[in-house]
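ok, trying the design again with the full structure, not the truncated one.
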């Protein structure tokens, strides 16, 4: 099978890439950047922490994070549009759940790493 720019061994190979590979890698890195940007907002991290283990209603997220309801709704909508969360309506309530566990793994990995660094210096 021919190698592609997405082969794990070649993905971060610093060697020169063919023009077609550059284009494919540019598109991949653009998508990765958008994905990581979801974690660039502390409010979204707080929201993800609340719903990482169980489905929650918007009201539950508001109560557990202390964030204003309009902000929570805006962040939940963005996370839903990005495919990270799924949503379900039940009567007048809307419930959200994690549909992409990778985002939780990334968040946990980074936060644990940073927390261990804080403990070492504190």
């Amino acid at each position: 099978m021919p190698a592609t720019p997405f082969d794990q061994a070649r993905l971060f190979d610093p060697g020169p890439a063919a023009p077609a590979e550059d284009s494919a890698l540019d598109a991949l890195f653009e998508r990765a950047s958008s994905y990581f940007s979801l974690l660039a907002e502390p409010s979204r991290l707080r929201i993800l922490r609340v719903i990482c283990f169980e489905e929650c209603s918007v009201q539950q997220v508001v109560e557990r994070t202390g964030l204003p309801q309009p902000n929570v709704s805006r962040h939940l909508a963005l996370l839903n549009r990005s495919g990270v969360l799924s949503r379900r309506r039940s009567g007048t309530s809307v419930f959200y759940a994690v549909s992409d566990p990778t985002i939780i793994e990334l968040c946990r990995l980074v936060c644990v790493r940073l927390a261990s660094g804080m403990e070492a210096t504190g």
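Keeping the full-length input from now on. The mean pLDDT is 87.
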